[in-house]
Amino acid sequence: MEENMNTQATDTKTKFCKHCGAKIPEDAVLCTACGRQVEVIAQQNAAQPQIVINNANNNTNTNANINGGMMYRKICNKWVSLLLCIFLGYFGGHKFYEGKVGMGILYLFTMGLFGIGWFIDIIVLLFKPNPYYVR
Q1: Which residues pair with 26 in a beta bridge?
Q2: Contact by Cβ (8 Å): 85, 124
Q3: Buried-most residue among 2, 87, 100, 116 (CB within 10 A)?
Q4: What is the pLDDT of residues 50-71, one digit of tens each?
């Protein structure tokens, strides 16, 4: 009986665990001594997953349709506005040019907001891009 066990033990093919060095069966995926994975787990009949990418963007921007696609009402030339501000700023000439009639009337009756608004507008107009847009 003892002789049967020895032949049976020698008939099974073995390999060594690459982590702990223990002798394990050749077809083992996990080490019987340390429990770590020694071979790649093969998935039988595992096909690649089907990946469907649907990037159809049907969104429309409703903000672009305001006022014919423009958010601003008027395009103004920086230099024309600056010259009007320097020479007619006390009377609101540059404000009327921009289409801001209410502010133009206020400048007209207060002499350019007592000169302070006129001076600030000159500085602001110097730093605006050309052309600039007025709401």
Answers
A1: none
A2: no
A3: 100
A4: 888 888 888 776 665 555 555 6
How many angstroms separate the Cα of 18 from the Cα of each of 9, 34, 38, 39, 43?
21, 10, 7, 10, 22
Alpha carbon distances (Å) from 72 to 20, 59, 64, 112: 75, 24, 11, 25
Instruction: With 0.70 as the threshold, say if the pTM is over it.
Output: no
Q: What angle do CA 76, 87, 103 make, to 5 degrees?
A: 55
Run of H or E including 123: helix 116-126
How far is the C-alpha of 90 from the C-alpha of 66, rounded, in Å?
A: 34
Bridge partners, residue 132, by sequence: 76
